[in-house]
Amino acid sequence: MSDLGLLTRAWPTAEVKVQGPNPHIDNYQFSDYSYLAMTQPDRNLDRILHAVADPTRRRILQALKERGGCSLDKDVGLCASDIENRIRLSQPTISHHMAILKKAGLVEAKRLGQWRWYRRNEPAVREFARALRENL
Is the pLDDT of residue 14 over 50? Predict the structure, then answer.
């Protein structure tokens, strides 16, 4: 499709319209109707499933699990540049993935001067595992 105009994608309960030539699930705009049928726990589970569906984000979560690798002398977690070096992706790409992980509640972030430090939200990861066992 050479036209870079508005693309339309069908979704089970709503019409989804996405701008651009290569739409990505992060850009989907769900109608209110599609979310009305979902309970808050279901929406949270869907958000987390979306976050962990990407192999890069799973690699980031695995890197954040390791201890003692932070250049800021923290025992747990990593600063953004440490994540960039381990995952071998650009800073904007890492920021994109971290925003999705934060929105899902799987990662906590803190600004330390000019640095951004991230760590896994272990209670949220455990709750996600519990919810998976109960719902699937």
Answer: no
Residue spans of the domains in the chain: they are 1-37, 39-135
What is the pLDDT, as a whole number, of residue 43?
A: 82
Beta-bridge mates of residue 57: none
Contacts of 90 (CB under 8 A, 6+ apart): 84
Mean pLDDT in the chain? 76
What residue has token string 């695995």?
62
CA 11 to chain CA centroid, nearest Å: 21
- Mean pLDDT over 89-102 rounds to 94
CATH number listed for the domain at residues 39-135 = 1.10.10.10
Please name the residue that has the structure tokens 């390791």: 66
- Element containing residue 8 per DSSP (H, E): strand 6-11
Q: How far apart are CA 30 and CA 11, in angstroms?
A: 9
**Could you give the CA distance from residue 36 to residue 16 in angstroms, rounded to a whole number?**
16
